[in-house]
Specification:
The protein has one domain: MetI-like fold (Orthogonal Bundle), CATH 1.10.3720.10. The chain is built from twelve helices and no strands. It has helices at residues 3-16, 19-36, 38-41, 73-109, 111-125, 129-140, 144-170, 174-181, 186-222, 234-242, 250-277, 279-287. Residues 81-270 form the ABC transmembrane type-1 domain.
Length: 288
């Protein structure tokens, strides 16, 4: 069996020990499938209005009820999942990629590179995440692309710090010194030996910060800085239902539950990845 196959089997076995992580994985995959197949599953169009069906409570015809414009909340929640999950996954991917590269370079080269990169990251971290994102979106304008850019920008310094710390430890190991003695280039050492050994910690945080990115996007939409209406987003749906919270509470409750399920599933996945990838936890579980 190859090394990759062995590692994959070991990861699957370790991940399986945490049953709740599988619940989170199944739940998140289900949400993704609902978002992907929203045009097929949704019984109505997400922006179709019906004045005669304004603010109807949940029923068999409208599972999540309708809003103030008579739009089907279930259909809008399905299409809103597309926006929220896309923002969460894409922004974390770019934030992880850019931030990890900066963190690895800072940790590997040290000296002035480390000082320049990490002091810049410290400046970015000194501002609250939500405030930084709001400023960026306000300057660029509310749109899906600008929301992704704003959240990516707030995640870069976090991933940089996460990647730098293990890089400092890994670069001092004997096999890295052996690579240098054999004449390996810095690029080869970083790509083939540094990054694979720090990737586990980065991936665990990526799963957790994806949940955070979804909540940040919902916050932007609630403040009117997200995707422009009438495009449905979970945060925008909560904002629209906020003024009707006593007359039609389902308008805010159901999109709020969607955010809750997405965040819960990602946190359960993060816990499972941590248990599977952290060697200290694996050793403790093997001793039990």
């Amino acid at each position: 069996m190859s090394t990759l196959s062995t590692a994959t089997a070991d990861l699957t076995r370790s991940f399986s020990r945490n049953k709740l992580s599988w619940v989170g994985g199944i739940l998140f995959v289900t949400l993704c499938l609902l978002a992907i197949f929203a045009p097929i599953i949704a019984p109505y169009g997400p922006i179709d209005q019906s004045i005669m069906n304004r603010k109807l409570p949940p029923s068999m015809e409208h599972l999540f009820g309708t809003d103030t414009f008579g739009r089907d909340m279930f259909s809008r929640a399905l299409y809103g999942a597309r926006i929220s999950l896309t923002v969460g996954v894409v922004s974390v991917f770019f934030g992880m990629t850019i931030g990890s590269v900066l963190g690895v370079l800072a940790g590997y080269y040290g000296r002035w590179v480390d000082a320049l990169v990490m002091r810049s990251m410290d400046v970015l971290l000194s501002f609250p995440t939500l405030i930084t994102g709001i400023v960026i979106v306000a300057l660029l304008g509310p749109s899906l692309t600008n929301v992704i850019i704003a959240i990516t920008f707030t995640l870069i310094p976090k991933f940089a710090r996460i990647a730098r710390a293990p890089t400092l430890a890994v670069k001092e190991r004997a096999y890295i010194e052996a690579c240098r003695a054999m004449g390996f280039s810095d690029l080869r050492i970083i790509v083939c030996h540094i990054i694979p050994n720090i990737l586990t910690e980065v991936l665990v945080m990526a799963s957790l910060w994806t949940a955070n990115a979804i909540m940040i996007e919902a916050g932007f939409a609630f403040l009117g800085l997200g995707v422009r209406p009438p495009t449905p987003t979970w945060g925008g749906m909560i904002r629209e239902g906020f003024e009707q919270i006593f007359q039609a509470p389902w308008m805010s409750i159901f999109p709020g539950l969607c955010i809750l399920l997405a965040v819960l599933s990602l946190n359960l996945i993060g816990d499972g990845l941590r248990d599977a990838l952290d060697p200290r936890l694996k050793q403790m579980k093997d001793m039990e």
